[in-house]
Structures are given as C-alpha cells and as structure tokens.
What we know:
Layout: H1 9-12, E1 18-33, E2 37-43, E3 51-56, H2 62-65, E4 73-82, E5 90-101, H3 117-122, H4 131-153, E6 157-158, E7 164-165, E8 177-178, E9 205-207, H5 212-222, E10 224-232, E11 245-254, H6 258-279, H7 281-290, H8 295-304, E12 308-311, H9 312-324, H10 341-352, E13 356-362, E14 378-386, E15 390-397, H11 402-411, H12 420-427, E16 433-439, H13 440-448
Parallel strand pairs: 3-5, 6-10, 12-13
Antiparallel strand pairs: 1-2, 1-4, 2-3, 4-5, 7-9, 8-9, 10-11, 11-16, 13-14, 14-15, 15-16
Helix pairs in contact: 4-6, 4-7, 4-13, 6-8
Bound molecules: 4-amino-1,4-dioxobutan-2-aminium adenosine-5'-monophosphate and magnesium ion.
Amino acid sequence: MEQIKRTKIVDLLKLDPAGEIVNVKGWVRSKRGNKNVSFIALNDGSTIKNIQIVVDSASFDESVLKPITTGACISVNGALVASQGQGQTMEINASEIQLYGEADPNVYPLQKKGHSLEFLREIAHLRPRTNTFSAVLRVRHAMAYAIHKYFNDRGFFYLHTPIVTASDCEGAGEMFQVTTLDLNAIPKTTEGGVDFANDFFGKATSLTVSGQLEGELGAMALGAIYTFGPTFRAENSNTPRHLAEFWMIEPEVAFNEIVENMDLAEDFLKYLIQYALDNCQDDLAFLNEMWDKELLERLDFVVKNKFIRLPYTEGIKILEEAIAGGHKFEFPVSWGIDLQSEHERYLVEKHFKCPVILTDYPKEIKAFYMKQNDDGKTVRAMDVLFPKIGEIIGGSQREEDYDKLKTRIEEMGIPMKDMWWYLDTRRFGSAPHSGFGLGFERLLLFVTGMGNIRDVIPFPRTPNNAEY
Ligand code: 4AD
Ligand code: MG
C-alpha cells in the first residue's frame, strides 16, 4: 500500500473534497451495500462524525472486504470527493485498503446500535468506541483544558498536593488506608493497637479526600492557587452521583471573603459551560439528541442567569413551607439537618428554577476549618446547587483566627499533633482566605446531560467495582 500521510477525520471534514488522494485510519462503525459497492462508516475518535468510504467491489478481492466488519481497524487510501448520497458532504473513493485488526462478528460485543448504558459499563474497555462515550470523553478533555486555561488566564498557580496523606481534611473518616504492613502479621503496640511506626511512612496514612489543607498553605504564599487531581472517598454510597475515586478542582485565594468566593464559583462554572457550548458543539448536539433533549437549553439557561444566593436558614424555611403545602420528601426537614439531594433539588428545580448558592450552614454539619459566624451557630460555608445534580461545589471562607480554629479542632476531637503545620498558617501571617471544591464528574454530569456518574469517567471506581 502506498505510504500517504494520515489525516484525522476531524481535519478531513474541513478540506475541499476536490479529489485529492488522502489516507485515513480508524475503526469500522458499520458496513452496508450490495454486491457491486460497499459503504463503510469509519470513525477515528477525532470527532463524533464518521467518514464514508465507498468501495467498488470490482476493484477489490472478496478476501479483502470480508473481514472488514464492525469494530475492525483499517487504513484506507482514496480520493476525497463530494458525496453523491445523503447524510454526508464528502466521502472517500477507496483505492487501497489495509486491514490492521479484525473484530470477529461472532464475539465482538459492540455489534448493533443502542446498547444500554448498564451493558456498556460492563465493557468499559470497549465503550470509548461508541458515539456516546467518545463524545463524553472529548467533552471531559475540553473541560480539563478549560479549567487550566481559566485559572492560568487569571494568575492562579497550579499546585500539586499530595495523594498520600496523614490528615482527613473533611473529618468524615471516609479514607482508604495506604500501608505496606503485612496484613497477615500486623505489628502491634504494647497497648494492642496497630504499630504504624513500622509502616512505610512511620505513621498511619491514607489516600487524600481533598487537597484543600495543603492548598491553603499554597494560597498563603502564592496568593491564588488551584489543585486539580484525583481524590478518594470510602463512602459506601451507591448513588448516581458518588464515586470512590473522583477528580476535584480546588481553588484557594488569599484575601477573598465569602462573597468573592461565591463570585469566583459562579464565574468559573459559567465560563466552563460557555466553553463547552463554544467548543464541543458536535458532541453536545449528539448528547442532546440522544440522551437529554433539554441539555442545550439548560446549559444556555445557567450561563445567562444569575445564581440565587440564600442562607441555609432561609432554605430550610422554604422546604418546611413546601411540606406544609403538601409536598412529600423521603427525609425529614428541620433546622440543623444535612440537606439530602431531594431537598437541594427541590430548591433548585421546583422553587427557584435556577442554580442556588446556599450559605451559612450549621457548624455541626460542616468541617472544622470553616469560618465561624458571630451567631455562634453557623459557619461561612457555601454549596452551589445545580439542577439535576444537587451539590456541584462545596466551599467556604476559612477560619483564620488561631484560637477559634484550635478550639474547634479540639471540640471535634481531631488529633492536634497531626494539625501543627496547618495551624502554623494561622500563627504566622494569617489572613482571610476562601476556596471551594468542584467535583469534576459532577460538572461533567451537568455538561453532558448523562444521568449516572459512572458514565462520565473512563474507568469508574465504586463499591465492589475496580475492574480495569
Ligand atoms: O463538599 P466536599 O466534600 O468539599 C471538600 O472536599 C472541600 N475540601 C472543598 C474545598 O473547599 N476546597 O467536596 C467538594 C465537591 C462536592 O461539591 C462534589 O461536587 C464533589 O466534590 N464530590 C464528589 N464527587 C463524586 N463522588 C463523590 N463521592 C464526591 N464527594 C464530593
Ligand atoms: Mg460538600
């Protein structure tokens, strides 16, 4: 076969189909035709769009065409011409075809169109070859790029916080332990506990649940930082919105107070959604058509409308009024509860019909590091609640007062000796500062319109599932 430089399909579709000889390589999505001519829909992952390959049976041996079935990988040389058929503007008249790898139709699992998402989860090693997952993965890439661009353009520095850590940032005790101890012969202390002094790091360590605490150290030196990395939570919640391994973006800014933190969160989310609308048009149009007919409308709405800002206490009043008016929730509502997804979604979808930033939560249901309000009951927390998702961002202004922070750490029974370095930021040059965490997969749920978080990450980790 003649060596011609490969062109990606995304670039081919921008060319003038004037008969130039080109090379494409990709995976066969389908083959149809009759004994005189075959039409191959080829996709190479560079775009949701296929290129049609027209094969004149008279020019090729039967043995070349037969193994070209759905899923096979081929390389094609041919003339790029305007299409005579409907459904595409251009096509390639094949002159040479090379088969790289066949995909036996008797066993290749991605035969017919319209497999269920549940079935595709069982073949997550192959699902990126479907239109839906390739679209989701391209949007995922675009969002990751846009996140770095947003912060870089605004003078934030990307800080790499550790994956292995000895501190539980959220204090929820949902950490995966990291150890090299022999689990069949665990060394014990004289008191009978595990002797972590003999472990790799000389102490008990885990996978991080959040990079925030180290992020705060960065903000108190560089002014404005963000983290973007994997985080791990051993919470046994089998829901469409929870993963055991997910990616989080955590900006942290010195001198920002809660209102500026809310402004940043709102601007950031709107920027990312607008970026997707501007740069992922083909993929979003496909996802809108295939999975969620209101997707584009919803994205547009969020970009164009100001988020509602509301104290938790007001939110609870609205929920209580809803109950008085006959609305049924599965979980009870009263001041002090941690809001359930159904409560968050009621506020956003039914009451305000708009994203909501809920602030000033009871201190008992929030982490130790949040700035305490003067009322003695609430803290300067802020959760951003989105339609279809519920909580997409969680953040706060941080307690910068050494004594108040230390007292809270003691009240909550957090081991002080593990926190000395964090408290040092409040001993030396303390300042008001704020930040938040955006769940990357929650953002992707919103932007792609997919309904289950397992379908917006290439290889999901959930309870009882760590395949691949
Ligand atoms: O609200 P969270 O727990 O906040 C923090 O971790 C803070 N340290 C963030 C900060 O202030 N820097 O988590 C932040 C976000 C949530 O709003 C949610 O979007 C996402 O992370 N998240 C999860 N996403 C998927 N699976 C899970 N199990 C998640 N838990 C939290
Ligand atoms: Mg939260």
